[in-house]
Model the fold of this input.
Amino acid sequence: MYDNTQSIKSSIFDSEYYDEASKRKISYRPKRIGVGSGISVFAGVLSGLLGVGGGVVKVPVINIIMDVPIKAATATSSYMIGITAVVASIIYFYNGYINLYITIPAVIGVLIGATAGSFA
Done:
């Protein structure tokens, strides 16, 4: 059965998060998604060509052009970086560019250090 209590104008892009600093729930709806996506593609190409992170372009675009709060914009950028890193590591592993004798101890050290650092 259809629940008619939600607004008809709701969108799949509607989102919210709880801001611990202000002790309130922040609701937002991104605007100009096509423009933001296009500029983000350009940022991805630019970062691939120059070897720099695309977050320096993506975060201001998401925040200013798409009207997303800065905390959500940085979280979204971090999420995109994670996806990019996973895909790149799969490609590098498939092509034999990852030395497991170096990678495995590094991963273990990062996991231990990140866990210990989160309790500090």
